[in-house]
Specification:
The complex is a heterotrimer of chains A (303), B (298) and C (571). Chain A is mostly helical. Helix content of chain A is 70%, strand content 1%. Chain A folds into two domains: 2-56, no CATH class; 69-298, Orthogonal Bundle (MetI-like fold), CATH 1.10.3720. Classes of the chains: A mainly alpha (303), B mainly alpha (298), C alpha+beta (571).
């Protein structure tokens, strides 16, 4: 009886295992095996020696890293930029979504949306080239416009004080249109009877927005906020890598660019891996936190 | 009261239209500026005289790029990776999402295990260098497959697809099973045809991702001929440093400064970005539904 | 329930085991059979017709252009190497700039070094110290052609010496002509005419010209839109800043921003802290207060300054000999009445101003220790010298292996082991062109490469020096013509033996690696502050003290050690 059950069960579930098999293998090779490389974080790695002949130094790499004068600013930069981005990418799309919602003319509305989505589709490789050109203190259009208003040219990408804000604003600009999609969908999902009720109560359009629309999308805003907690250390490698330069390292160097330089250019693999590990652990804790909060706040189960 | 309302409302509406109009313009103007620069002569660009219309019309920049085999090679490489990547990513997405969407533990007992297996990879990573070393050890460095295999399972898409599958009524599945179909057939003949919208969305994400990817090409490809388009763009536009040119180089190659200017960069950016910019407006409805599906739950 | 879990675990375990066996097996397989980037694959099949196959790692400039059907592995050079020397090249890695560094790092990490590699100074030291490079001393002695030897040793052997360790040669340095790329004073001659002044011969006169350019409306448009003299923002940057360099100005006071020179007592010292620098900065501050300098120069890089030059806002600056190709050319294209001329740099003291030049040696060609044909590198180097740099080269050879006049493709761009003599060829070319123009020598008798430039210049002159229509001719004329950059360099600088060369080059010393970046930054900030008046000139002394204590003294010591160790044989 038990045997029959077992073979039946096996027959039933085998297809699932087979379906998952290719993905499991690929994931194992390209995601799990690299995990063993984490040992580099605890070794003093000399590239010219073999993989197993490295010297174990325990937490020395971490101690060294944290005592490096530049390192604390790398962490701070990452946090600063990432938090600003998260805020910006939360606030602005909401506002713009609300504004778009107020447009009656359908064609104008559709056109504006289509155009706003545009930057999202451009790779940072190309977009960085565009920004380097238009933000240039010499020939850049932006500075030319500023000068028309009598202002001095601003060194958006070369001034360490301004660079983080350039990074945040350009990223917000890029993802603005895309971000509105979710909120517009949520807005359109609000029961029209609420608006009716508000109108009857004498609320003008503005009050309607304030008391109906906004509360109606607060759940989704909270959800997005909470889901993005896990990204607090993702300051945007692709963007920063293509826009930064030595003169803005002090405020623009983020964890991922630091890891790239230390690892692939200066071949300090041990340090690079240590930093990566540090980042992974913190991100993991935050992601779990975020997902649990999402569950509590909005009953949203990611998986 | 009504009159006051409609006045301030009118003002608001006007401002709104203008504001959004400017915002939308800000998304197009940089491209127009680049377009103008790419069609202007070098002297004009150098002296910074170009705004939104070409001055001293010249196609030199485009001739240079299109006369260079590299552009076509990279373009072909990108097309190849988009097509193959689309197929691989989509297949694997379905193959993973389907089993994982069976949240009834009686049907698939190991589901939780597999789910955790995949999800951990979303949070943790071995890091840039260990991953590179693995790719190198399996001999994929400088191979086209290095652009496809390491990220062959797109977890974000899996989640979207998974949620979609979960949302399909179970009765359909049960009906098929009763008819004697096994899981493969059910997936192929029942679920997939019903998921066209979701598949379109996933396809879109995957295609855009592959088109825009540049970093993997940079670290895994050893020869520029194998660079996908965006990597080529990145390595030329963002790398070439004019100050490193020596007078020996100039003497031999008087056109050197001509071709490294902003005109070339602008033209190349446009040539690499235009394809996807021309395509996406037509696919709007798909990604709108897709993003919504992935985040807003009823 | 339990059995399912166990089965699941077993399944995962089996998969894991089989995979690890697979991947490690795959790994060793790759190493054994020697894939295209493996070190073993560069083996010789001397039995099969004496062809040596070498895998190559090459740094691209980003400008390479190929003929129809050619690519990096198949072009006029690779075919020549195969026919003439029996060397087959297989390029396995080629990248531009930082990419190349990254790929080199990864290759070293995954032990995947090819046979022939181009390495920057730092990696050269590392690999040599780890014993991974082939000893080239003997093959150099035996196989190097006379032309190659003279090219490499033209500067007295200093650069070659840096490639030696304990007297043995481990690499071929890509010697960079160190006797040039120094500052000249470039002035708009039409402006000089307009304000009625002559070219300056000392600092006083230079200041007069600057004032006139600033306040006497030299472009005659009635607007206050011209600067006295143009500088860009890097006071001590690593990459030569031209146009708008400071070195030419500093030289007027016997100081330089980043050179290492022997002091009175013979030891090497940093010139950025010399007392003359204080006077130089004080003078610049005075000029700044007078309004002669663009107050925004601190945010303008060389490119931005070039724009100012091109659009006619700057009429005087220090720049290197290559200026005719860049900003000045755009300028005359935009302003047909403009013309530029170079002059020797001026001095502020009774001593003549000595322009500084820096050795830009940053690449070594090396051979992997495991390669069985180390002499190949010498043969490849010979080939380049033979085809491009030889005085015997015919015009046809140059067209086939160098720049093809029809297509404009520079085929020499992808020659393996390309290096120009340690002393600029322009020295000889200039003399030859001058002689040919004056009729002393027949054009056919001079070097074919020089002949090309001669013809361009002659055409320009014959057509009435029409720079608007023949800006390229103006280019060459101002560069290597009888009044061009090289005229000044040779007849003024070299003839009077005033060209000075910074003696330190190559890999950074240990302390440089950790401290130089912040020291450079401190220097740059202090200089700019003094120039702009945010700090008093006396702050310079404080800077000097800080520089010394925060690592400068240590670095100086290391530089001296390096100098003694490297050049003890030649000195």
């Amino acid at each position: 009886m038990k045997e029959k059950k077992r073979s039946a069960w096996f027959k039933r579930e085998l297809p699932f295992h087979l379906m998952l098999f290719p993905a499991v293998i690929l994931t194992f090779i390209f995601k799990y095996i690299p995990f063993t490389g984490i040992t580099m974080a605890f070794e003093q790695y000399t590239p010219l020696k073999g993989l197993f002949e490295q010297k174990w130094v325990g937490l020395d790499n971490f101690i060294y890293l944290f005592s490096l004068p530049g390192f604390s600013s790398v962490i701070l930069n990452t946090l600063y930029i990432a938090v600003l981005k998260l805020t910006g990418n939360l606030v602005f799309p909401v506002i713009v979504a609300l504004l778009i919602n107020e447009i009656r003319a359908k064609r104008y509305k559709k056109t504006v949306q289509t155009v706003l989505y545009l930057p999202h589709f451009i790779s940072w490789a190309a977009l960085a080239g565009i920004f380097i050109d238009i933000l240039s203190p010499s020939g850049g259009i932006v500075n030319q416009i500023l000068q028309m208003f009598g202002m001095n040219p601003v060194f958006f990408l070369g001034d360490a004080k301004i660079f983080p804000y350039t990074i945040v604003l350009t990223d917000v600009w890029k993802e603005l249109g895309w971000g509105t999609i979710v909120y517009l969908a949520a807005i359109s999902g609000i029961d029209p009877t609420y608006y009716e009720a508000a109108k009857i109560d004498g609320a003008g359009r503005f009050k309607q927005i304030l008391h109906v629309t906004v509360p109606g999308i607060i759940p989704i805003i909270l959800l997005m906020m909470v889901l993005s907690i896990g990204n607090v250390l993702q300051a945007g490698f692709e963007q920063v890598f293509n826009l930064y330069s030595a003169q803005v390292y002090s405020t623009g160097d983020i964890i991922d660019t630091f890891v790239y330089r230390i690892g692939m250019i200066e071949s300090r693999f041990d340090l690079a891996t240590a930093v990566g590990l540090f980042k992974s652990i913190i991100s993991f804790i935050l992601i779990i936190l975020g997902y649990k909060l999402a569950d509590k706040v909005a009953g949203y189960k990611v998986f | 009261m009504k009159i006051r309302e409609s006045n301030s409302r009118k003002i608001f509406v006007i401002f709104n239209y203008i504001f959004l109009g400017i915002l939308a313009l800000s998304c197009i103007l940089p491209l127009i500026n680049l377009f103008a620069i790419s069609f202007s002569s070098r002297a004009m660009v150098d002296a910074n005289a170009v705004r939104f219309w070409p001055k001293d019309f010249s196609t030199a920049a485009y001739e240079y790029i299109l006369g260079n085999r590299q552009y076509y090679q990279s373009f072909a490489m990108t097309i190849l990776r988009v097509v193959v990547g689309w197929f691989v990513n989509l297949s694997l997405t379905i193959l993973v999402a389907y089993p994982l969407s069976k949240d009834d533990p009686r049907i698939f007992r190991c589901r939780r295990l597999y789910t955790w297996f995949f999800l951990i990879t979303m949070c943790f990573s071995g890091g840039l260098i260990p991953t590179y070393l693995v790719v190198s050890k399996v001999n994929l460095v400088n191979s086209f497959w290095a652009l496809i295999l390491p990220e062959a399972v797109p977890m974000f898409c899996v989640l979207i697809m998974m949620n979609f599958f979960k949302g399909l009524p179970k009765v359909i599945e049960e009906a098929a099973l009763v008819d004697g179909a096994n899981w493969f057939v059910t997936m192929w003949k029942v679920y997939i045809p019903l998921s066209k919208a979701s598949l379109a969305t996933v396809s879109l994400f995957v295609i855009v991702n592959h088109w825009n990817a540049w970093f993997d090409g940079l670290i895994y490809m050893n020869m520029p001929e194998k660079y996908p388009l965006m990597t080529y763009l990145q390595s030329i536009v963002l790398k070439f440093d004019i100050t490193k040119i020596t007078s020996e180089m100039l003497m031999r190659n008087p056109n050197l400064l001509e071709v490294t200017g902003r005109g070339i960069k602008g033209a190349l950016i446009l040539l690499c970005t235009l394809p996807i910019l021309l395509v996406y407006p037509f696919l709007q409805k798909y990604f709108v539904t897709g993003v919504v599906m992935g985040s807003v739950k009823e | 329930m339990k059995s399912k879990k166990v089965l699941a675990l077993l399944l995962t375990g089996v998969i894991a085991l089989s995979l690890s066996a697979c991947s490690s097996g795959g790994g060793t397989e790759a190493e054994k059979t020697g894939d295209s980037t493996g070190t073993e694959s560069g083996s010789v099949n001397t039995s099969e017709g004496d062809i040596a196959e070498l895998t190559v790692m090459h740094k691209l400039s980003g400008n390479e252009k190929y003929r129809e059907g050619d690519d990096i592995n198949n072009n006029v050079w690779t075919r020549y190497y195969l026919e003439e020397y029996g060397i087959k090249l297989n390029y396995t890695v080629a990248a531009v700039g930082d990419d190349y560094t990254q790929k080199l790092t990864m290759a070293i990490a995954s032990k995947d070094l090819p046979d022939l590699i181009e390495v920057p100074a730092k990696e050269f030291q590392e690999l040599a110290a780890a014993g991974m490079l082939a000893d080239l001393t003997d093959v150099y002695e035996q196989e190097a052609s006379d032309l190659l030897k003279s090219a490499l040793e033209a500067d007295g052997g200093t650069q070659l010496a840096s490639a030696q360790i304990d007297g043995r040669l481990y690499g071929i340095p890509q010697v960079a002509a160190a006797d040039s790329t120094c500052d000249l004073l470039w002035i708009r001659t039409d402006w000089l005419e307009k304000v009625g002044l002559e070219a300056p011969t000392n600092m006083e006169e230079l200041l007069e010209v600057a004032r006139a350019f600033r306040y006497d409306d030299p472009d005659g448009n009635g607007q206050d839109d011209t600067w006295g003299i143009g500088f860009q923002k890097e006071t001590n940057g690593q990459d030569g800043a031209s146009p708008g360099s400071f070195e030419g100005f500093f030289a007027a006071y016997g100081a330089y921003a980043r050179a290492w020179l022997p002091d009175e007592d013979g030891s090497i010292a940093y010139t950025g802290i010399r007392s003359g620098m204080k006077s130089a900065l004080a003078q610049l501050n005075q000029m700044y207060e007078e309004g002669l300098l663009d107050p925004e120069f601190g945010v303008k890089d060389a490119t931005k300054l070039s724009e100012d030059i091109a659009s006619g806002r700057v009429g005087m600056f220090y720049g290197n000999e290559g200026v005719p190709w860049g900003a000045a050319k755009s300028c005359i294209e935009m302003n047909p009445e403009a013309d530029w001329q170079c002059y020797p740099i001026v001095s502020a003291t009774d001593d003549v101003a000595k322009p500084i030049s820096y050795v830009r040696l940053n690449k070594y060609f090396v051979i992997n220790k495991n390669c069985e044909n180390p002499e190949a590198i010498i043969k490849l180097a010979n080939a380049f010298q033979d085809k491009i740099n030889s005085l015997e080269s015919s015009e046809e050879t140059l067209n086939t292996f160098g720049v093809d006049p029809e297509t404009g493709i520079n085929l020499a761009e992808y020659a393996a082991v390309a290096l120009d003599p340690a002393v600029q060829k322009c020295n000889t070319y200039y003399a030859e062109i001058k002689a040919a123009l004056s009729g002393e020598v027949k054009p056919e008798e001079i070097h074919p490469e020089a002949k090309r430039y001669y013809e361009t210049i002659k055409a320009y002159l014959d057509n009435g020096s029409d720079k608007t229509n023949d800006s390229l001719g103006w280019n060459y004329y101002k560069f290597i013509g009888p009044e061009g950059s090289w005229n000044t360099i040779i007849n003024s600088y070299k003839a009077n033996d005033i060209l000075v060369e910074s003696v330190f080059f190559g890999a950074s010393t240990p302390t440089m690696g950790t401290k130089l970046a912040s020291l450079d930054k401190m220097q740059s900030e202090n200089y700019i502050n003094i120039i702009m008046g945010t700090k008093e000139a006396d702050a310079f002394d404080e800077f000097v003290n800080n520089w010394k204590t925060l690592g400068g003294d240590e670095i100086t010591k290391e530089v001296n050690e390096w100098y003694d160790a490297t050049f003890s044989d030649i000195k």
